[in-house]
């Protein structure tokens, strides 16, 4: 049952409403998907430390298993983003978590690399489905003065999940076949999130787009106050809003929205290619930087996760003051500088290596939080989840290629060559952002999405 928000005689809209307990609960529960994504990707990096020698896996299987969840995210975002626009946010908000729980448990019983590859692919599909669902709900419920911070906060939870996985994995490494328990462990937070999400209602924006104004108004009065109105929510022809998959993708990929898809896909891909490779193969990469495999490498891996989280928090504090564009552009430039140092001095003293990693991780926070802010601000309600799912999927294909190629690159190009490639990717992200990034600071959701 919904928690009754404080009543108010004054008229209130979604964009002008004060932040209340419902907004906080919605954001916390919606952050479960990013938390699980970070956890699932990071835990495999540590699990592979045991899996590779146990199964005597080569670089090909190493890369395939590391990248499998990312390929799944592509499929999930592409298919279920559009489905979310058609059948609503709330139903899909729970189905995807059930799938994550089931597939996480089944990982415990795998006996061969191909079985683990398939299960992690299916987990990725469920995670990819959650991205457009959860972010659309938050974007469509929260006041505009808090939208950037709360949407960006969802991405910060990705790093909380990854950090938690690093320490859980480090603890379980001391257990024989601990990798099985690592992969199973993602089911525990998924169950808790599933239970918590039962109290979240359907999006008023989506309901209005389907001609269900009375239902939308009732939900708003329960969540932001008795004085709530539907002002600021654009009413559409319900029949026109029920776009087929073909028409929805046609709208997203046509006209002015195509430029936005290209921009978001490029900057999002450039943000996560290096990031995901580090998470999938962190202990192995750190060992090449003279952090010996074992306790030292795994502790260093956990600390890098904390630096990523700090960077997200700092970016959240400044994004509404500085604006989206400068946070994005300078984030790429400065994080890329850290990668350049690692490329030039791969044999530098341990303290300098740690500082360069910290520099990269902290300034990566700007582009990271905007992965969630820009896609939800730049597309209208009727295709918001479709667009977010599409951009998520495109970015994950790039990340999957990068993750698959990382062990091969380390073997054939070496550590320095791999870091140079990572720095070049950051430069591409900076250039695309400079020429294409719009400024949506201070705009209402409908205004930001308008062409």
Automatic annotation (TrEMBL):
It is a multi-pass membrane protein. The keyword Transcription does not apply. CDD domains: MFS_SV2_like. The chain crosses the membrane at residues 34-52, 64-84, 91-110, 116-138, 150-173, 179-200, 261-281, 301-320, 327-345, 351-373, 385-405, 417-437. It comes from the Bacteria. Keywords: Membrane, Transmembrane, Transmembrane helix, Transport. PROSITE patterns: MFS (PS50850), SUGAR_TRANSPORT_1 (PS00216), SUGAR_TRANSPORT_2 (PS00217). It is found in: Cell membrane. Residues 26-441 form the Major facilitator superfamily (MFS) profile domain. The keyword Transmembrane helix applies. This is MFS transporter.
